[in-house]
Amino acid sequence: MTPQRVVSMSATMSDSFFLAVRSSAVRAAVCAAVALLLYLPCLGSMDVTGDDEARDIGVVRDMVARGGWLVPQFNSAFRYELERPSNLQQKGQLLPVYNAEALQTKPPLFYWAAGASAMLHRETVDEWSARLPSVLFAASTVALTVTCGARMIGAVPAFLGGLMLATMPMFHGWARLARCDTLLVLLVASFLFVYHLAAEPMARGLRLILWALLGLAVLDKGLAGAGLVATVIASDAFVAGRTGRLRALVDPLAIGIFVLMVGGWFALASSQWGTAFVFRHFVARNFSYFLPDSLSGSGGPRGWLHHLSHFVNILTNTAPWGLCLPAALIAFWRLAPPERSPHLRFLVVWLTGGLLYFTM
After folding, report:
1. All residues at 6 or more sequence positions from 251 whose CB lies less than 8 Å from its CB, including other chains
2. How buried is residue 47: exposed, middle or buried, by Cβ count under 10 Å (0-12/13-18/19+)?
3. How many whole angstroms separate alpha carbon 188 and alpha carbon 114?
4. DSSP letter string over 248-286?
5. Furthest C-alpha separation in the chain
């Protein structure tokens, strides 16, 4: 079956359906509802998955129990055991801890979200309340994809794309874990959609929103969010020549908000745990695999087989929809009207930048 025939059949089959769901908000709500129906059942009865989720739930439980929400901790020392506070009880009054020990592996934003969920759930931290924010963030990402995708590639493809995202095995799996990743996806997607679709010249309000989103991404997963965004928008400026859009982000007030958000929290953490915390968080966790083991303590640079395994993992965990991506890109490139080409180019840059960033 030719790509032209597939596009024609899709348009014909969808005409009657979209008479009932014309508005972008309704289409987004339908896809978000599908996501919730897939992610919510038996959310609390599923076993804790791995040490990472167990630790994160433990951090949230102690954070809520002790009432210290500023710097989430675990087991009274860094994961890297840089130092041990002399007065654990006093530290615990200010900082959330787990079993009286501290862990600085992630910034606090997801822990705060999970803690807020627990406060609404009779102040009970269990698997259901800790995982609920991930479900809501994932469903919101699906709705955002449908809404913004409609402006970029059309209502029908965006709706189908939202359904594909909601039913993708990898996305489904992460949506049901008490981890920070679905929040990071939502924040990065929000930034990139707003950045790409904003009218020229970019309004001051949008610049403030973009830098605030970037600050929240850093407070969720450190440099991972900022690095991904920087990779995509820098690549877009190079490939599409949109250097003016990149320069529009240079706004002293907006940058000041970002510095206040991120710098304020990291300054607080550093005041409690010293400058070694900053080194471990920004260097060891983000550049350790490019540094000798004597500097990073991570085992040194990774081989090419490690990076190849990421691509294999992505292909297998996004099936069947991920396997359709090459054919979809070719068909869209050949059949889409000229005004859609900049949108397709940005999506390809986004996809490529993300793959490269997270496999390095």
Report:
1. 204, 207, 208, 211
2. exposed
3. 19
4. TT--HHHHHHHHHHHHHHHHHHHHHH-HHHHHIIIIIHH
5. 71
CA distances from 337 to 8, 160, 331, 333 (A): 14, 19, 12, 9
What are the residues whose beta carbons fall under 8 Å from the beta carbon of 335, sequence distance 6 or more? 3, 4, 7
Q: Are 39 and 135 in contact (CB under 8 A)?
A: yes
β-partners of residue 76 are 102
How many other C-beta atoms lie within 10 A of the C-beta of residue 122?
A: 8
Q: Of 6-10, 142-146, 268-272, 281-285, which one has max mean pLDDT?
A: 142-146
Helix, strand, coil in percent for the chain, rounding step 5: 75, 0, 25
Q: How many CB atoms lie within 10 A of CB 88?
A: 15
Query: Which pTM does this prediction carry?
Result: 0.83
Q: Which amino acid is at 248?
A: A
* Of 60, 166, 155, 170, nearest in space to 110 by CA: 60
Q: Do residues 353 and 227 touch, judged by C-beta distance below 8 A?
A: no
In the predicted structure, residue 239 carries a pLDDT above the cut 60? yes
Closest by alpha carbon to 222, among 283, 176, 306? 283
282 contacts 222 by C-beta, under 8 angstroms: yes
Q: Where does the pLDDT of residue 354 fall: very low under 50, low under 70, confident under 90, or very high at 90 and above? A: confident
Q: Are 49 and 181 in contact (CB under 8 A)?
A: no
Joined tokens for residue 40: 């919510």
For 76, the 3-state DSSP assignment is: strand
DSSP of 333-352: HHHS-GGGHHHHHHHHHHHH
Model pLDDT for residues 126-172, shown as the tens digit of each residue: 999 999 999 999 999 999 999 999 999 889 889 999 999 999 999 99
